[in-house]
Every structure is written in C-alpha cells, then in structure tokens.
User: What shape does this take?
Amino acid sequence: MDPVMKFSTRTLMVLLLFAVASCVHFLFLAWKRSKGEGGKGLQISLLARTAGTLFMVFFISLCSSLLAPFRCNIHPNGRWTVQAYHGVYCDGVGPHQVMAVVGGLACLLPLGFLAICMWVIIIELPKRLQQADVKFLRACSFLFMRFRPGAEIFSVLFLIRNALVVLCPLLPGSSAKVVSMNLILYGSLAMTAYSKPWRANVCNFLDMMLVTGMLVILDMGSLFIQDNDGGTTMVICLIFSAMMLLSIIGAVFYGVAKHFMQKYRKPFRYFLCHQKIAAGSMARLLKMELQKRNSKFTTFVDCDDLNDLTRLFSYVGQDTETFVIMGSPDILTRKWCVGEMCTARSHKVKTVLLAWPDFVKPDKNFIENYDSIVPDITELANYNIGLQEESIEHICGNLTGTQRTRSIADTRESPDCIIVSDLDNMEAAATAYVLLGLIVPKLVGGQKNNMPAVLQKDRSVPNSACSALVICSEGCFKQFQFGDWLMQVAKLPDCCVLPIIAEDGFRFPSPSYYEERKVERMLERRLNAD
Assistant: This one.
C-alpha cells in the first residue's frame, strides 16, 4: 500500500477497535440472556465504561498515531519528510495534504472525548452526585474511580497533560521541544506532589517516581542533541534567566512591603488568649461584640483562624496589634496560653488582661515551682520559649474606644422566648448571649416582643413566654435564682422547654442529688440558728 492508504488504514483501525469492543459487548449480553442471567436492555452504561477505559488507556498512542503527518524530519539537502513515512515530503500538497486532512479529521475523535470528559467532570458530576444518580456514576466511573473523592478534576487535567506531551514533538527546534516537555513534566510532578490525587497513596509515589525518571532520561538525553539553532537556545536561556531575576526582585519587594504593612496595619486587631473550658464561650461572645462595633476590629480566635499549629506564635508576635489575656483561674496552667503570653512580651505586643473575679496573679512560690505544676511546659522549648470584673460592654468599650448604641443586655417587657442561664457562671452567661446573638439575626423584621431575651437577675419569668431555652451548666441547679426561674416556667401552661448543654461536666439531677441538697439545707438552717 502507498503511504496514504497505509495511514488511512491505521486510522480506521482505531474505529474498528471500538466496533469490535461493541460486538463483544453485545455477544456477551446475548450469552448472559441465553443462560437466564442477563438483565433487560443493552446496558449502555457498561458499554460506555468499556469504551471510556479503552480511550483512557490508548489516549497517548491514539493521538500520536493520528498526528503522524505533522511530525517531519529535515534532511541535509533542506527538504522535510514525514517522520513515519520517509517517502512523503512535508510540503502540504499531494499525498501529504491528503494525510493531513485525514489526520486532522480523525483528531476530532480524541478532542471530542476530551470535551465529553470535561463536560462530565465539571458540569454533570456535581449535579448527579446531588441527585444520587448511581447509574450515571457507574457509567462514568472510568474517569474518577482511581482518584480520591474531591480530586475527580485530575482525570481531565491528566488527559490535557497527555495531549500536550503528544504535541511537544510538533514544535520546531530541539530546544523548544525539550523545554516544553520539561515544563509539562515538572508541572505534573509538582501537581501530584502537592495534591496527592490518586485514591491509593502508593500510586501517588509511583506517579512521582515515574515522572522523575522520565525527567532524568529527558535531561540526560538532551546532552547529546546537536542543535544548530543557537539563536533559539539563547532566547530560551535569556527568558528563563530574566524570570529568575524578576522572581528574586519580586520576592524582595514582597518581603519589604509585607514588613511595612505588618508594622503599620496588622491582620488581626485583637488576639484572644483563652482557656477553652473556662472561657471558650466568653471568647466567642467577645469576638462577636467587637466585630459588631466595627468590621476593622478583626479578632483572632484559634478555633476560627488557626489552620497550622506551628504558626500560632507567629500570629501573636507578627500579626496582632493587641494581645488580650482572658484571665480565667487556670489559664496559667495551659502551656499554649503561656507560650502566647511569652511571645507577646518578647515582641512587645500591647497586652490587656481581662481578669476573672477568681483570677489570682502568680506568686513567688508558683513561679519557682512552675515546671512541676505544669510538667509539659518544657515542650515550648521547641519554639524558643523558656520557662477586677467588667461587663462585656465595658470590655469592648475599653478595647476599641467606641460605644454601642444598643446594650447587649437588651431586656424586653414581654418576650415570648426567654433564655434562662446561671448568670453567676461567666461561661453560662456568655453562652446565653452567644445564643442570643446567633438567633436575633434570623428573626430580623419580626415584632419586638417576638425577639428572644436573656432573663436578668431579680426579674420574673413573663407570662407571655411560650418557649424557654435553658442553658445547662455545671452547678446551675444549686443557684436559687436559676431554680426559681425553672419553677416559674413549669407553672406556665403553654411554655415549652429546650435544654441546651453548655458544659461537658453538666449532669442532670439524680435522686441522690436531691437528698444531698436536703442535707445541705438542714445544715444551713442549723448554722443560721446557732
């Protein structure tokens, strides 16, 4: 056969391969039905999965075969011939023109497959996952079954990478080919190392190892290329040298700009140093109130803003304007809180202490025996670290120098929803106000009396209350005011109760609890009588 007929036959063999796969599929279904095992229909999803798998496996080989008319070699006499068909000149006329047309039309097949894969992964897959369309997912499983959940897009990215690898040999000049192939493979290596897209972790390491081996072979082989086009090589070297120089200059300017930006305007206006068990809800409430005052009062709370523990102390020393210590009784026994305090002091960060009523400043004995009181404090050596009550309104006002137009302790005369909490417990009270702050925005536009309200001391439960949110904290049933409110709620005929557990240590009262309370009351009465 002449070159044109040979190339056309090879191209048709691709279509013949998929035709044979379809015939085998239909014969297999017929055989299954003859044995009474087959289902109804042609099972198009199974056929699509088979055809898609074949396309994925032979994608590079298929594209390389179809692009054969466009890969040409130059001879000493200056003439170009097709690399795979030496008898055909690369002149765009005659046999070469016919082969180019056939190859170009045949290339629509892998391009169409790539477009379908992009449509399936980017557009259809999210919709079908929401609809739980198992049939569609099974039909297209050849695309994403090898990738971990959330990394399905990499099936399309790897197909695009494979297509670019096939196109690299079409570039003029050996230097351009080597550089483009290096860029593609280095990009693929970085992408795999950073994202780890394969479902099996060993496949990620295998992929990186194979690409690294290809890069070594490519770079070693490029040493033996005799490229007479020195101008192209020089331009490529100049471009990359300029990029390297610009990268260095850009990094220097970025560092200088970031230094001055952090010096005069740091990312966080306040850093809340707190013990989660004793002051977690208070820290949340304080952050909510500060941000209500002004959006510029950005506040760091570790559960919201800390993604990397190794950067904790850099947030304190470099990114914070005011360091706020929420002085609960045991905060000095928490090594991370102490590490934050030491970092703030060493970096001369403005520090404010919000002392709890039972907070006691450390004495000489506490400081001298600190390493025995907190044994794991020595772990901070890895980070180069050695060893009056106010309302929330007053705290926010002192920190920001602003005033809030409406008090957080907004009391309504006859609310239909009340929040009952132990106001003598700061965490319980803070939890009540955090809950209030989360509920109120959901009810904007309603009647004033329909808004929830936190029940204040020396106030009775309003008769209009039809629901009560009870903040259950440790020791709340020992408080007279809390128990009195619950008794008033119980007397309301249409008031429903929703208990909200605010602390891990909370336990519902048991029969023995009531007996203990009776004994305590008797002892109190005797002491009062004496």
Remarks:
- Residues 339 and 380 are 7 Å apart (CA to CA).
